[in-house]
Structure formats: structure tokens, C-alpha cells
């Protein structure tokens, strides 16, 4: 049963505790409150201002789990705070083992400052949680994937279109790195249901993965120099910088190129045109 009064109070409290700078927004002009405006939270959460306002006014509809997850992201809630939000709205708290889709607040704050970079937040099983506009233009919008295909690890071994983004001569190295990463995760926690399901699916569907798995591959650099073949700009040679969250559940990945290089010029062009036709 939804506790409308406490839900409204919790949302308002967390909204007022956030500053525009915390979410990558300009402060601008005079503000009546010290925190975010309702319309800013609505935009950050991907919903209408009217819908969010009604929740704070104790007269909104019963929010779904999808709406609550969006609000948790928009308000930069910790996992514990997200649990509380779900309880207030009368929903069962999701199992922690299945919550790798929630970007940690600290990681989100860093991501918010990378609007002009090709950056993305990826969880430990290779699912992209957030992408900047330039990242989507570079490698495609990975948020539209569903099921096992949400994982880049799964797509690499099962989807030829995913491999087409990278030169064929680099495929063997990518395959070994991904298999080694999964092997390390499985060795570290054999009971993890997400890793187990991913490994079992790949063993059943990919002979290449199965052969690599039998070799007990050891992970090296997770994100070395990467060559990406863009469908319109051609080949880009990019450096891949990663920031690992303290609990090792997420990575912030940023693609860069040396200033003055051809790949740097292509990235700058891509930041302007996005996914428009050249």
C-alpha cells in the first residue's frame, strides 16, 4: 500500500537537498528554493512535470517500479534510499543481486560533468547504464537492448553486427579480454546469478567462447587502446580510460584521442553532427 504522505515528503526532501551543480545543471537566475526545481527533477527522471508534481502533492497515481527506478536515478539516490522509496510506494524491494542497473550516486556525479565526452557507465556484466550523446553517436545507443543482449559480453559472441564496429584483426584480442573478464567474475563469486546465467548462455551459444573458457583465461587490461570503425567517419583509434567504482560493480568508460590526431578531429566532428547524415 502506497504511503502517499511519506512518499511526497521523501521526494520533496531529496529534491531540496540536491543542488543544480550536483546533477550537471547551471544554477542560473534567482531560485526560490535551495535545491532543485520540480521541473528539473522531472526532466532528470524522464517524466512530465505534472506527473512528478502530483506525487509531491500526495495526489499522484500509484507509481510503477519503472517510475521509481527513474526517480531514484534522477534524484541520485543511494541503493539504501532507493529501497526506502520502493517501500514507501508499496513495492517489494528488488533483490540486491539484480540491482546492477542503478548508477551509484558518486559515479553519476562524475558522469554528469562529461557531457562533451564519449563516456558511458557500464555495470560488471557489460550492460550499459548511461551514455553521453557522443558515446551514442560513436558506438550506438546501447540502452535499447533487452534480455541477454543488454550485455556487451553476450553481444560480442552472438551478434555479428556488434563486431562490425571493430576491425576484424582486433576480434581475437577482444574475445579473449571479454572471456577473461567473465572468468575473473565467476571465479570471484561462483554464486552470482547474473554472471552464471551469462556464462551458461554463452557456453551454449558460442563455440568460440566455450573454447576460450576451457583455457581459463586471465584478465589483462580491461580497456586498452581501442579501434572503432564508425559507419560514416571510418576508423578511429581511441584511448580507453576507466574509473572503477569502489564496490567494483560499475565502470565509467571514457574514450579519448590525442589532440591534433585524425581520430581527435573525427571525435570533434562527431560531437557536432551526432547521428545526423553527413
TrEMBL record:
Coiled-coil boundaries: none
One annotated GO molecular function: DNA binding
Domain HTH cro/C1-type, first and last residues per copy: 35-82
A Pfam entry, by short name: MLTR_LBD
Name of this chain's protein: Transcriptional regulator
Upper lineage: Bacteria, Bacillati, Actinomycetota, Actinomycetes, Streptosporangiales
